[in-house]
Specification:
The chain is an alpha+beta fold. Helices cover 36% and strands 31% of the residues. It folds into 2 domains: 2-19 and 74-164, PH-domain like, CATH 2.30.29; 23-73, no CATH class. The protein has helices at residues 23-47, 52-73, 140-152; strands spanning 2-7, 10-15, 76-82, 86-93, 98-103, 108-112, 122-126, 131-134, 156-159. A hairpin with a 4-residue loop joins strand 7 (122-126) and strand 8 (131-134). It is elongated.
Length: 166
């Protein structure tokens, strides 16, 4: 998801993964699946196949852990602030973990275009000393949107397929 905000002389671009369910909804799914699996496991244990109980517990625990990890990763955020002279990149989950500052006239947006329909455009902010890959969690349409916002903000966008135009 790409959000654009104009504030005074700045352009603030916020990048976040598309989230189909929040953590509260995921907890409901986990509880429903746990109840379903445990009902089946208890029924089998009443018939005499009690060995299924530890495996059912392991299955529910693994499901909960994996859903938590996936949900946690959907809360990451990247914020790119473009001013008249500087570009600031901030990223993190729940709080800022990385912050990079670039000079606007020295930064370039390097793109590697997708070769097939199953690949996505690779976008990197780069200057002489530092570089950072942005939007790894975005879909192809959002990546094209962010590139158009960069062009409107007058950042130099360099493509590996420069001879094709767009």
């Amino acid at each position: 998801m790409v959000k654009l905000k104009h504030k005074h002389e700045s352009v603030i671009i916020t990048l976040q993964p598309n989230r189909s369910a929040n953590w509260q909804q995921n907890k409901i799914i986990i509880m429903v699946m746990a109840a379903f699996v445990m009902i089946i496991a208890i029924a089998w244990s009443l018939v005499g196949v009690w060995i299924i109980l530890p495996f059912a517990g392991f299955e529910v625990g693994l499901l909960a852990y994996l859903m938590y990890r996936v949900s946690y990763s959907t809360y990451q955020k990247q914020i790119i602030t473009i001013n008249n002279h500087t570009v600031t990149f901030e990223s993190g989950i729940y709080y800022r973990k990385q912050c990079l500052h670039f000079e606007k006239d020295k930064i370039s947006v390097v793109t590697i275009q997708a070769q097939t329909d199953y690949e996505q455009t690779h976008i990197t902010l780069k200057d002489n000393q530092q570089n950072v890959v942005i939007g790894q969690f975005l879909n192809q349409q959002d990546r094209q949107t962010i590139l158009s916002h960069f062009k409107k903000a007058q950042l130099y966008v360099h493509s590996d397929k420069w001879w094709k135009g767009n």
